[in-house]
Amino acid sequence: MVNSYAGLKFFRGFKLEEISFITKLMIPVVYAGGEAVLKEGEVSKVLMLITSGQAKVVKTIDEKNVKILALLGEGDIIGEMSFFDDAPHNASVIAHNNLNVLALSKKDFESIIEKNERLAIKILVRIIQICSQRIRNLNEEVKELGHWCVSLRDTRK
Question: How far apart are CA 65 and CA 68, in angstroms?
Fold first, then answer.
């Protein structure tokens, strides 16, 4: 089983014994397509790693509209913001199709910190890398939106 997880992009650079240590603490969860995984406004102290399938990250705009922020797949993580800051989820995550995840509780992550600090740091570095890439992607979206707004303004003159 560990070998199948070793291929996930989250675990690139991890040793098999590290992956085994982490995944033994994680609980496999399956969601059907369309099922809510995380709900905007709720708090859950769980970090999830997608092992197969896809999930949509959606943000409520108003009562009638939602914006799809991302489509995540194998090797991506979800729930990281609420996992670390204990604040409500900023968006909802919906299974796009059959979705398999490994869920790590905050309590189990704290046990990793206690038992193996180097591994905990390695996990944190990977999460920071993922979050940094997501911020870069959002910055590009903001830039594109800015260009679109300028173009729209120019056509109205």
Answer: 10
The enclosing domain of 112 has a CATH number of 2.60.120.10
> What Cα–Cα distance (Å) separates residue 70 from each residue in 24, 25, 143, 144, 146?
28, 27, 17, 16, 19
The pairing of beta strand 66-72 with beta strand 55-60? antiparallel
Number of domains in the chain: 1
Of residues 82 and 152, more confidence is placed in 82
Token pair in block for residue 112: 């990793």
pLDDT digits (tens, 9 = 90+) for 16-65: 999 999 999 999 999 999 999 999 999 988 999 999 999 999 998 888 88
Q: Which structural domain, as residue segments, surrounds residue 51?
A: 2-155
The answer to whether the predicted template modeling score (pTM) of the entire model surpasses 0.70 is: yes
Count of residues in the chain: 157
